[in-house]
Amino acid sequence: MNCEVGEIIEALHAGANLPIDLTKIIESEGNIRLRPANYGSKFDDRIEYVPDRKIFILYHPASVSPRVRFSIAHELGHFYIPGHKRLLLAGKCHNSIVGYVSDKRLEREADEFAAHLLVPEAYLNTAIRRRTFLTLKDLLGMANELQVSATAMAIRYARATPEPCAVMLLRNGQQIFYVASDEMEYVGFQHRGRRDIPWNSASAEAAKNEGSGEVFEKEWDSDAWFSKRKAECKSWEEAFPLGHTGLVLTMLSNPSYNG
Q1: Which of 56, 96, 205, 211 has the fewest CB atoms nearer than 10 Å to its CB?
Q2: Residue 230 DSSP label
Q3: Are residues 50 and 162 in the same domain?
């Protein structure tokens, strides 16, 4: 995230309480109108500019949930990120695909904006200092406290922690998103060349139990996830099915580093 966008988010956090009040942010702008409704199960959000009224309209599901909050924050990313806003003012708009499942640059940038907006840096750094290493169960509790999606919380943690860990988003037994902490990259796990998920992993078990609300855990040789070069390493795997979406959130960490 560049400095300009970081400064925008910092300004939005000034004097704010937790969880971040998105409605208050929107009302403070004065030119954004919310349009909640039942747009269908495949609709996330959409923001568009209406030139004759000089307003932006933000369409979003009427339900209240961490996922919907993340979707609204994602659309605010399109509003606040300068390059995105220029496109809106030029009449460009589309239905967004949120939650780190899109490969499009604009969508990923808006996801990053949403995650940073809903999980303030100060809050995250304080949690890390108190506990050093946080488990996926810890992160789910923090996500509930901030009313943010579990995926956003886990990815924010992986990018901030000094501990070696990696977070993945999985769908239909395939990895669709991977992010490693700096220390995880340092010890050689900067990316996964393979996208398939080990058949007897905790992640595979989580995929079979969608909607269970349970975190599945297992110790696993790193060569099952990465390559034979890492066969001597053991990873601790935690996996959580994200409702009935078919998605699984997985965190791998090295127990030799987190005790």
Answers
A1: 211
A2: G
A3: no
